[in-house]
Design a protein that fits this description.
Helix content is 71%, strand content 11%. With 434 residues, it is of the alpha+beta class. The strands form 2 sheets. The chain has a 4-stranded antiparallel beta sheet with strand order 2-3-5-6.
């Protein structure tokens, strides 16, 4: 009877579940599905400062999230290294049957408990190694954060660079269109040869292709930056920054001190060295792992025995020379890696400082003199062409020189920002979250 009731209830539930789903409001599912697009649409067209954009990238960057998980794992490793060994409990049961006259027949029960008292130097060395592992994980987290910040800033300035290049391409296209129209008027009136309109038309087509390429480069740069943010940047976002943003003054001696003290990669290598040194101490102390204390209680029909004992492992056959030698070799390797990387980073810092200074000089030279001279040359060539003193080739050459100088100026400004970003990365300025 009970089985029949259970079967009927189960069948009824199968029939009623689909009806309950159909009875739900039809608008609930679309609302849930459109929650994320609605939130994205609400943020569409958001204008970010450079710091706000970097913070958005840090919030959603998958690589940084993985580094945070590694730090949590290292914290768990400290708890694992400091855990005390569990006691061991043994229970036995049996029977006693005498072989001769006078013996007692009955049951035998016994139990025993043992506890390993670990060598304190062994445990201390193991905990020290785990703590240095946590320091290494924190340094790696700082390095990852600094790299993500540097990449975000670099790609943000790349977006600004591509936008400026696109604007320059638009200006160039407009200028060549005006030149082409003037040439067409002169050709139609017979004042200029036919080849001049052909040349002007070819230059106009080439400029239009450059404009389209520049627009595509802007979208590609925006996509690369959005990939760094895990695809979490809203549609139509803009950036309130410029390639001409002011840079702090550079003091090479102070930067070298910051490199040696706050660079996260060097901090991680130092933590690895200290961890290997703790491994050497752990290998030495592992020859005497500890003392095991034991108590046994045994009962039979005639007697009750309580035995207390202790056991210790004597390092006669294995003195842990192999593990100690391996740990010492790893220590030497870690020290060599630290010293070599320290020299490499100092050279990279010197190179970045030099690149920043060279880019600054290029910006001053191009922005103050060359760009003005090129613009003046275009105006002179256009005026001379209108009066018939110069040909169309002179005008196009002057415009080509202006385009080259503008492109060089934009690249110099971008390289100046890139060099400053590399200096911040090497000195670990963005390694620690403020």
């Amino acid at each position: 009877m009970n089985k029949t009731k259970i079967w009927r209830r189960w069948t009824a539930s199968l029939l009623l579940c689909p009806l309950a789903v159909l009875a739900q409001p039809a608008s609930e599912a679309p609302q849930r599905a459109s929650a994320t697009p609605a939130a994205t649409a609400a943020e569409a067209g958001t204008a970010y400062t450079l710091d706000a954009l970097v913070e958005r990238v840090l919030t959603h960057n998958p690589t940084l999230q993985g580094a945070r998980s590694a730090r949590v794992q290292a914290e768990a490793g400290i708890r694992t290294a400091g855990a005390l060994p569990n006691p061991r409990l043994e229970v036995s049961d049996g029977r006693q049957r005498p072989n001769g006259v006078g013996g007692t027949n009955g049951s035998i029960t016994g139990w025993g408990v043992s506890q390993l008292i670990e060598n304190p130097w062994l445990r201390s060395a193991r905990v020290d190694a785990a703590e240095q592992g946590l320091r290494n994980s924190e340094a790696q987290l700082g390095l990852t954060r600094a790299e993500v910040v540097a990449q975000a800033k670099l790609r943000a300035y790349e977006v600004l660079l591509r936008i400026e290049e696109s604007r320059a391409a638009d200006d160039e296209l407009q200028l060549l269109e005006q030149t082409r129209d003037r040439v067409r008027v002169r050709v139609d009136s017979g004042e200029a040869a036919r080849y001049e309109i052909i040349k002007a038309e070819a230059e106009f087509i080439s400029a239009r292709q450059r404009q389209q390429t520049a627009q595509l480069a802007v979208e590609q740069a925006r996509i690369r930056l959005n990939q760094l943010a895990g695809g979490q940047l809203p549609l139509g976002w803009t950036l309130n920054a410029r390639l001409e943003d002011a840079l702090p003054p550079v003091q090479a001696p102070l930067l070298r001190e910051q490199l040696l003290s706050t660079n996260p990669e060097l901090q991680g290598l130092r933590a690895q060295l200290e961890r290997q040194q703790a491994r050497v101490r752990e290998a030495s102390a592992s020859r005497w792992p500890g003392v095991e204390l034991r108590y046994d209680d045994l009962r039979d029909p005639d007697n009750r025995q309580g035995v207390i004992g202790a056991s210790i492992q004597i390092p006669l056959l294995d003195q842990k020379r192999g593990p100690r030698a391996e740990a010492e070799a790893e220590t030497t390797r870690a020290r060599t890696r630290l010293e070599a990387r320290q020299i490499e980073l100092q050279l990279q810092l010197d190179s970045a400082v030099m690149a920043l200074e060279m880019a600054r000089l290029r910006v001053e030279a191009l922005g103050q003199g060359a760009i003005r001279d090129a613009e003046a040359a275009v105006r002179v060539a256009q005026a001379a062409y209108r009066f018939g003193e110069r040909g169309i080739l002179d005008v196009l050459d002057a415009q080509r020189v202006l385009r080259t100088v503008r492109a060089d100026l934009l690249q110099a400004r971008y390289q100046q920002q890139a060099a400053a970003i590399e200096i911040d990365l090497l000195t670990g300025r963005d390694a620690v979250q403020p």
